[in-house]
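Might I ask for a little of your time on a matter of protein folding? Here, with my thanks, is the record as I have it:
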Amino acid sequence: MKYLKRINVLKISLLLILTFLVSSINAQQKLTIDDAISIALKANFDILVAKNEASIAKVNNTAGNAGMLPTLELTGSANVGQTNVHQKLADGTESNYPSLSTTNLSAGTQLSWILYDGGKMFVTKNKLNEIQALGEMQFNDKVMQTLYSVIAAYYDVVRQNQQLISIDESLKYSHERVKIAQAGFTAGSLIKSELLMAKIDLNVAMENEINQQYVIDAARKNLNVYLAQNNDSVYEITDSIVLNYSPDKFSLLQKLNSSNTNILAFQKQIEIAQLSLKENRSLYLPQLDFKAGYYLSQSTNSHGAIRNNFSTGPQVGGTLVVPIYSAGENKRKVSTAKIMVQNAEYDLQNLKLQVNTEFENAFTEFENQQQLLKIEKENNSLAKENIQICIERLRLGQSTSLEVRLAQQDYVQSSTRLINFQYNLKIAETRLKQLVSAL
């Protein structure tokens, strides 16, 4: 008896463990919108590429790349030759070397340092700082774009799942119509065409269900692209679209110009263009270079008065270059840089106009979808009540199949509109958040 009790306890324990494991597996397959965003931030290929591009700008931002640091080089050369030499000196002495062999070897270290270049190196370093900052802004902009796409793709899957639920509900009404029509036809109270029409509508509803499964599968694959996941990835999606956003237009407008990633990037491009102008203006100023090194050289001759020559020692020098005339090249570069600054300012003004227009459209769309959703909620409730009443009246023989069919179509269309309004409202919300970099 005690042995049987132990077996029962063991079975119960194993059952509880199995239930826990199954629950854990199911929980791991649940993909929330926060999970999707987290995965995209780590794995999305567009984000990874943008991150690398920002890293390139960071790697390039060095004092050495700006020309502020010296360079040290180790050089060496070797030359071996054989020549025929005939020499006749002023005193009449002649020397003939029909096969003179020469060997020249040299080596040395050289330090080169630009001491002054009109301040260009300091301007270039500031420019590299701004380019790095621009890379980070462009990375943030790509993140905002990708998150918008992820949210839109995620809730599209939710929308299509809700559409399938609506189709399944309509399918239940179609099955009910067929049962009622079949019973009426058997009892002789309905003609056969009523039954046939109900069966046709049932088949159409079943076809719609199959087509919707394909739409859902395509939407899931689209989401997997943004998440950098394989198409065979299986996960459970939330069954509703969360709508609790209450934006304040005035506060969003205040944040728009100071937080929009596109506007910030274009403002940074103006600063970079201005620094490029300063770089080109420095070409009018002199440049002073310093050089120092230690050199060794050795030459060997097979004939002649000097058979071997070896020299070694340090050398120090400098070069001063004062630009006097460059065939108008410096002036051309400065003029071009001025135009680039002006173009950058025009681009910023144009972008601000576009972003503010997009904001106004997105906010108007948000308000419109709110109103449409409110109306359609009531309309959907009425349509559902109407189809239920029609089904009951059909069951009691007080209504026709055509009347029920029309009521059913109204309900399906209303459900579709309701789902789309919810999705559109979510997209408008997401767009507003993207514009102010609040995703």
